[in-house]
Amino acid sequence: PIGIALDGSGKFIYVADKGNHRIQKFDISGPTVRFVGKWGSECNLTVTPPTGRCVDPDGGGPLQTGDGQFFEPQAIAVDGAGNVYVSDTGNHRIQKFDANGKFLLKWGRNGLAQGQFDVPRGLAFTKQGILLVVDQNNNRVQEFNADGTFVRQWGEQGNGEGELNAPQDIAVDSAGNIYIVELLNNRVQKLGDLKTQ
After folding, report:
1. Which of 43, 107, 110, 183 has the most Cβ atoms closer than 10 angstroms to its Cβ?
2. How far apart are CA 43 and CA 51, in angstroms?
3. Average of pLDDT values for 8-23?
4. Max CA pair span of the chain
5. Is the peptide bond before 49 cis (omega within 30 degrees of 0)?
6. d(Cα 27, Cα 37) in Å, to the nearest integer?
7. Do residues 46 and 34 lie in contact, with contact meaning Cβ atoms separated by under 8 Å?
8. DSSP states along 147-195
9. pTM, whole model, 2 decimals?
10. Main-chain phi, psi angles of 71, to 5 degrees
11. Cβ–Cβ under 8 Å, residues 143 and 152
């Protein structure tokens, strides 16, 4: 297990079970934690020979083999409507599900262009409802609307203020400040609400 998120009600918790290539959901509101369900699987075994990982054939839809499957999912975020967003890290994409695990949409593929990723990691929502995606190997953060529409990106490789070097995770506080964990710079940066305007 590597990623975790709480829904807006504070009742349900989602866990990115990386090595099992799935998301698990638990109800934590009662006296004991109750398992609710899971979704996702490692790969498409109908491929000959099996790939050993779940690879989406085109990276852009429509619904087909690979949708709702993962290769080493690492981060989760839940929006105000209860929809669940997952960094499908090994497939270089983001997948969106409803609260019951029904696949809704996906976007991204490996690359450097807008809306593409090279190892997407941490996820967080701004107070305006914009999804922030840490794009680790591209040393940037990309912003998207809830439907996967690209908004903008920021960050570049370096060790100066506002520069990034292998960013891993991200969080937003109630004032809109953004916190980013950087692996290779061995630091946490705090960025003001300017980035979320």
Report:
1. 107
2. 7
3. 91
4. 51
5. yes
6. 10
7. no
8. T--EEEEE--BSSSTT-BSSEEEEEE-TT--EEEEETTTTEEEEE-GGG
9. 0.87
10. -130, 100
11. yes
